[in-house]
Amino acid sequence: MEYNLDMSMMLAIHDALRRDLAQVARIAGQRNGRPAARLQAALGWELFKKFLTVHHQSEDEALWPVLRDRVAPDPDRLGLADTLEAEHTVIEPLLTAIDAAAVDPDDGNQRFGDIADELVSKLTAHLTHEEVDGLPLIDASLTPQQWRYFAQVQSGRLRGDEARYMPWLLSGAGPQTLDAVISNFPPPLMAAYRDQWQPKYGALDLWNTIEPA
User: Fold this and answer.
1) pTM for the full model?
2) Which of 27, 40, 124, 134 sits at a 20 to 30 Å CA gap from 6?
3) Which of 129, 184, 130, 170 is closest to 15 using CA atoms?
4) Is 13 exposed, middle or buried (0-12, 13-18, 19+ CB in 10 A)?
């Protein structure tokens, strides 16, 4: 779909979240040992939680309220904006529930699989809902200045984490996404990403998949 607003960062974030959800599902599907504890110990899980939370908090602060104001005269559009925001409230508790299951020595593993499945299902559905219905509404309703304000709020929440966030965002991204996102980088940021951040991030064992020697 063609947009008037630049949706490249939003779509890249969605792709990164889906990529990590695939890892969550993979670990949850393991039947040996304690997969809940294995997930909780993974750096990839910590980054997923952190950047998902930042993204949703930024939307709750700087996107949904602005969008509701813009579409307030239209009950159907207002209802869609309210629904998209409300979907956040069922996702974050699942992150907490997974961590709680990981440290429960009694029946944590039994709960973990169902909770992980629900997280994958609910977050995937939310991302799809945003892309199919939310982004067209945002594109038709917000001014470029309002869209930039949301981006600025999200960037502010990520200040100091750029060296981890940008490689996380673009890990596994296709050429079109890479070009769309990196083209917005100022030259010093582009150089830092290519020469330092991405190589260092690429050497990490994010999901504990490397067996010790």
Assistant:
1) 0.95
2) 124
3) 170
4) buried
Look up tokens 């830092």; give the residue: 192
What are 90-100's pLDDT values in tens digits? Answer: 999 999 999 99
Beta-carbon-side half-sphere exposure of residue 43 (alpha carbons within 13 Å):
12
Q: What distance separates the 2 farthest-apart alpha carbons in the chain? A: 63
Residue range 8-160 forms a domain whose CATH class is mainly alpha
For residue 66 the two structure tokens come to 């602005």
For the chain, the structural domain boundaries read 8-160
Q: Residue 95's closest CA among 56, 66, 69, 67?
A: 56
Give the C-alpha separation, 123 to 196, whole Å: 31
Cα–Cα distance for residue pair 64/55, rounded to 1 Å: 12
Pinpoint the alpha helices (H) of 63-170.
Answer: 64-71, 75-86, 92-102, 108-129, 135-141, 144-157, 162-170
